[in-house]
Amino acid sequence: MVEVADEYKLTDETLFLAINFVDRFLSVMSISRQSFQLLGTAALFISAKYEEIYPPDVHEFVSITDDTYTKTQVLNMEKLILKVLQFDVSAPTAHYFLRKYLSHLQLPKHINHLAEYLCYLTLLEDFPFLRYLPSEIAICSIILAVHTYGIRGVDFNFYKNTLLAIESNEPKNLERLITSRQTCIEAMHKMQIFASQHSQQAIFHKFCGDKFAGVALRTAAEKSPDFKIYFT
Questions:
Q1: Does the keyword Mitochondrion apply (predicted)?
Q2: Where are the strands (E) in 67-217, listed by range?
Q3: Burial of 22 per CB tally in 10 Å (0-12, 13-18, 19+)
Q4: What pTM does this model have?
């Protein structure tokens, strides 16, 4: 799906939204392995129509599959996805929160690229990342990017204040949320270390390019950051 999104110059949000559709669909309905490509194609078709100004038409999505599936099959899968999702196609994604947080922080461009790369890596594994909220993945991506480049003095108080507001200023609840995000950032750090060895290489190669300052080639930190120190 990453390669298809790049080939048709679809936005990052289109890709993340399509994968959100796939995850939510599979949490409700099982399909055969042979139908996974059809599911992904139809999910991209829906998200492109929702996010893009000029989305590719259904014939282009059929050609993506090398005509493995027909136009009718893609449209029928589109109907099935929408039925299963109850036409709820407006979903917050990790990339949506990432853009919001980065806009607030105004970090150097290479940090933004690395945070985006780390956010992308979470698409490769359902476990453990499906257990975390999109907002958790987004903030962990940024903190790990900052940690990887050894940047100091980044003010994350806006995020701490958000957590406190959500949890009604309960210190115990804040501690629980920080612990959850610590496990997320540790899993993300492992993904960063072994990304070049993963069976799916599209994301790694995408972020090796000059467009993203080659951030995928940046050596990961020896240890994952302590999430808590950014909120003390």
A1: no
A2: none
A3: buried
A4: 0.91
> pLDDT per residue over 91-141, tens digit each?
999 999 999 999 999 999 999 999 999 999 999 998 899 999 999 999 999
pLDDT tens digits along 204-230:
999 999 999 999 999 999 999 998 887
Q: Decide: residue 232, CB within 10 A, 0-12 exposed, 13-18 middle, 19+ buried.
A: exposed
Burial class of 13 by CB neighbour count within 10 A (0 to 12, 13 to 18, 19+): middle
Measured in whole angstroms, the distance separating CA 126 from the mean position of its chain's CA atoms is 11
CB 52 within 8 A of CB 116: no
Contact by Cβ (8 Å): 129, 184: yes
For residue 120 the two structure tokens come to: 């992308």
- For residue 99, the model assigns a pLDDT of 96
SS3 30: coil
Structural domains in the chain plus CATH codes: 1-85 (1.10.472.10), 94-230 (1.10.472.10)
Please enumerate in sequence order all residues whose Cβ is within 8 A of that of 28, keeping only pairs 6 or more positions apart, or say none.
84
